[in-house]
Amino acid sequence: MSIDSVFVHKMWVDHELSKMVKKGIPFPMLSDVGGKVGTAFGVFDDVAGVETRGRFIIDPDGVIQGYEVLTPPVGRNVSESLRQVQAFQHVRNTGGTEATPSGWRPGKLTLKPGPDLVGNVWKVWKTEMERD
Amino acid sequence: MAEEIKAGCARPTGGLVGEAVKEGTATQQEEKKEVKPMIMIGRKAPDFMAPGYFQGKFINVHLSDYLGKWVLLCFYPGDFTFV
Known about the structure:
The structure holds two protein chains of two kinds. By secondary structure, chain A is α+β, with helices and mostly antiparallel strands. Chain A has two domains: 1-36, no CATH class; 52-130, Glutaredoxin (3-Layer(aba) Sandwich). Helix content of chain A is 30%, strand content 14%. In chain A, the strands form two sheets. Chain A has a two-stranded antiparallel sheet with strand order 2-3. Chain A has a two-stranded antiparallel sheet with strand order 4-5. In chain A, β2 (44-45) and β3 form a beta hairpin. Chain B is an alpha+beta fold. In chain B, a hairpin with a 2-residue loop joins β2 (48-54) and β3. The interface between A and B is large, with 60 and 50 residues.
């Protein structure tokens, strides 16, 4: 979503993005002319008149589970966004009985929060597990 | 789920769902200043409607169209930016 019109989106897709993604962009490119939606999400810079690089993870109930906002010159990390989605999906699928510690990826150790874990995280989770 | 829109001469715009359209330019600008971010993790995302371009068509998208699915909503400064 950006402040560009849908017509500009079409030009960008047809003339540039289609050369990068052969099957076409698999999601709608949304237009927020005037920045109303961006303002509601706190990512519209009303001085520059553009959206900043905000990324929101919204769950199937419409609840915001996480967000990240960067100033324009620095791009995002798609892998990290996907990792976070996978982690939130795992937590949801376990009904909140499991939590994903720092650096978690699918298949890695999860934690089961409860009285027994207090003061005992060090026994099961090692700092090097934070890294890939 | 998302209805197709006809490409007219005006630029289609969207907005928040449930927000009344305000009349008058002077009051509109004053009220605009009072719009505060409505977001908080763990709370519902504000529903919105926005025109979009998707697979060769212009469509209207509501965030609420995606209830039941995971959504990654990304804002960016502008088309043809290079990061």
